[in-house]
Amino acid sequence: MGLLFSVTGKQHDAPEFPLEVLQTAIESQDECNAWNVLASQRIRSELVCSTTTHKVPSGSRQQKCNVFTCVEAAVHCNMPRIVLAMYQLSPADVRLATWYALYNLKSKHKAKRSSVVHPLQIAPELAKLARSQRKTWLWERAGPLLLVRNCDILARKDRKSAVLGHTKPCRDEEALASHPIARLPDVAFGLILSFVALPEAKEARILRFLIEARSCKKCSRLCIPGKCKAKRLRRTERRGRKARS
Question: Which uninterrupted H or E stretch holds 222?
Fold first, then answer.
């Protein structure tokens, strides 16, 4: 571990991405080395604070090293215990990073055109972590709408409990019933849910931009490497000028 830190220190007196050391250790496929690095207070503090999750590198060739890249490396190197240890330090970020890493892994596996496709092997602990992320995501966005939508069920439960003497009515049934969401037709409510609960592919595209985007020399905007839209922007600008003239 001391050697890893000394090498990194020579390259960066003040590392732009402190988790670079952890990622290097994971990618070496030496799990003992990865555990040693993860035991460092400096690395553990960075995982807790997650200061570089969406940080854009200052140099065009500087590699991003953050919670997402470390989790992805651990998934590819089959180190689920490392991921779970990171999860203890930064639950929200690591859970999201695990979902993203497994989604990309499954997408690449499906895209293979070979005649024989071997089944994808995913550690059960990581699959469970990814599922919990998706459920958390969906509930945070759609849960409140579903509760308002089903206010009549909640009200009936309140009245039944009150009659039995278990509880006192505590919800304003009339206020909930008059809420616009509660009065929408089923088809309209379904459309709202489809907008709020984005499909996994759209969630992944949003995350990919937040994780991978960096300053582009061609268009001076944030772009995913290799996905610059400078030409398209120039065509749009030319069309706009022609339309105005």
Answer: strand 222-223
Could you tell me the residue range of the domain that residue 68 belongs to?
18-54+62-108
Which two tokens mark 41? 């207070």
* Gyration radius from the chain CA atoms: 24
- On whether both 102 and 141 belong to a single domain, the answer is no
Query: What is the three-class DSSP state of 40?
Result: coil
Over residues 43-92, the pLDDT tens digits come to 999 899 876 665 665 665 667 788 999 999 999 999 999 999 999 999 99
pTM of the model: 0.69
Q: In the Cβ-directed half-sphere of 109, how many Cα atoms lie within 13 Å?
A: 13
Number of domains in the chain: 2
Based on the domain organization, do 79 and 152 belong to the same domain? no
Structure tokens at 163: 């009659």
